[in-house]
Amino acid sequence: MPALLLLLTVSTGCVSTGLNPVSGNTRAYGYSWAEEVKLGKKADKQIQNQYGVYEDEELQQYVDEVAQEVLAESHIRRPETPQKFRETEFHFRVLDSPVINAFALPGGYVYVTRGLLAHLNNEAQLAVVLGHEIGHVEARHASQQAGRQKLTQGLLIG
């Protein structure tokens, strides 16, 4: 029955299948990659309005440089990764919040708070945090979750 439900859900357009750029496997997603990028861009404006971007250009540049180095070594930048993923522009922002947090939005938007940065002891720790968040984007976790929710709704409604 679950395979039939997945087939029905995919065929009606509720969920799509696509490539996971990390594993190379086909998975069920709630959104296409293009939709993920669009959703991330829209939500980025909301996040910036809610938290504010920390107004320290030197710190922002430093975080971006570390992030770009980590990104350059990630799965999504490997030559064998499909072009639509490989060429996605990532955006790294320092948010003006004392809360210790980092998170990512679909489509290449990654955030760290000034509160988190104050607790890090070295660049390696920052690189680990950024790599973790890049991994969420690469593995398309938000879209996978949306796909699971759509499948669950299909079970409840169907």
Report what the structure shows:
Helix 3 packs across helix 6. This protein has seven helices and five strands. A hairpin with a 6-residue loop joins strand 1 and strand 2 (26-29). It is globular and about 40 Å long. It has 158 residues and is of the alpha+beta class. It has one domain. Mean pLDDT is 87; it is low at 1-12. 56% of the residues lie in helices and 14% in strands. The chain has helices at residues 2-11, 33-51, 57-72, 83-86, 114-119, 123-138, 141-157, and strands at 16-19, 26-29, 91-95, 102-105, 109-113. It has a three-stranded mixed β-sheet with strand order 3-5-4.
Helix content: 55-70%
End-to-end distance: 12 Å
SSE succession: HEEHHHEEEHHH
Annotation field: number of helices:
7
List keywords for this structure.
single chain, alpha+beta, three-stranded mixed beta sheet, two-stranded antiparallel ribbon, 56% helix
Write the layout of secondary structure elements.
Blueprint: H1 2-11, E1 16-19, E2 26-29, H2 33-51, H3 57-72, H4 83-86, E3 91-95, E4 102-105, E5 109-113, H5 114-119, H6 123-138, H7 141-157
